[in-house]
Amino acid sequence: MEETISLKELFETLKKRLLLIVSITLIAAIVSGIVSYFFLTPIYQASTQILVNQAKNDQGQYNYNEVQTNLQLINTYNVIIKSPAILDKVIEELDMNMTTAKLNEKITVASEKDSQVVNVSVQDPNSKVAAQIANKTAEIFQKEISSIMNVDNVSILAKADVSENPSPIKPRPLLNVAIAIVVGLMAGVGIAFLLEYFDNTVKNEQDVEKILGLPILGIIATIDDQKMEELKTRRRPKSSTRRGETLGS
């Protein structure tokens, strides 16, 4: 015999474990907020743009084949920008106490589809350092690419700058707290149903009927001591009155 769970039973389970669900959700939100605000280091990002110039032919018009060649070379440029040939010079000129591999992790190079613009983004706990690394990487790449690939078609389109009040890109405390609330709520509901599933105690007549598979013929009501005393108190005046009437007669 397959057991079915009604929607009413689901709501009763949630109502029964509501305190547990709310507690888990609040704990998850508080822990996420504390970690995001006090333990995670803010990370800032600075970006610069490099333009792969369109070569011109003798008639002063853009050559389609030259443009396509530049587009195909962008992927190569993306690799060269993060190569030791460029990053070693960046570390040397900025006098950074950092390995090439560590600097490579801070830099992200990307380009839009069918675009000749390459975006160089740098992430660092210091916003000024991030801007310095981005600008220096673009500058050294522009100088070195002519000797590496024997081309001279790269120019810096926009330099990275630092605003007066820069905002970190991560962590995002409010987003982290919102995610923690959702995760905590899901975990609380899951634990509530799990506890209900493993709870084998008999709590009411419906549980007896489910376990034994027999219909319930009757229920013996429970009366607490207070109610028993109230019933005895109500019966005593009637008994005294009847005795008085008997003696008077």
Topology, element by element:
Layout: H1 7-16, H2 18-39, E1 44-52, H3 64-81, H4 84-94, H5 100-106, E2 107-111, E3 117-124, H6 127-149, E4 154-158, H7 173-198, H8 205-212, H9 225-248
Helix pairs in contact: 2-7, 4-6
Outline the structure in words:
Helix 4 packs across helix 6. The protein is built from nine helices and four strands; from the N terminus they run ααβαααββαβααα. The protein is α+β, with helices and mostly antiparallel strands. It has helices at residues 7-16, 18-39, 64-81, 84-94, 100-106, 127-149, 173-198, 205-212, 225-248; strands at 44-52, 107-111, 117-124, 154-158. It starts with 6 loop residues before the first helix and ends with a helix. Strands 2-3-1-4 form a four-stranded antiparallel β-sheet. The protein is elongated, with a radius of gyration of 38 Å. The mean pLDDT is 82. Helix content is 60%, strand content 11%.
Please count the helical segments: 9
Which descriptor suits the 3D outline?
elongated
Oligomer: single chain
Q: How big a fraction of the residues is strand?
A: 5-15%
What Rg, in angstroms, do the CA atoms define?
Answer: 38 Å
Mean of all residue-level pLDDT scores: 82
Q: What ranges have pLDDT less than 50 throughout 5 or more consecutive residues? A: none
Order of helices and strands: HHEHHHEEHEHHH
- What can be said about the biggest beta sheet? 4 strands, antiparallel
- Strand count: 4
Q: How far from one another are the termini? A: 69 Å
Helix content: 55-70%
Query: Largest sheet, order of strands side by side?
Result: 2-3-1-4
Q: Which structural class matches the secondary elements? A: alpha+beta
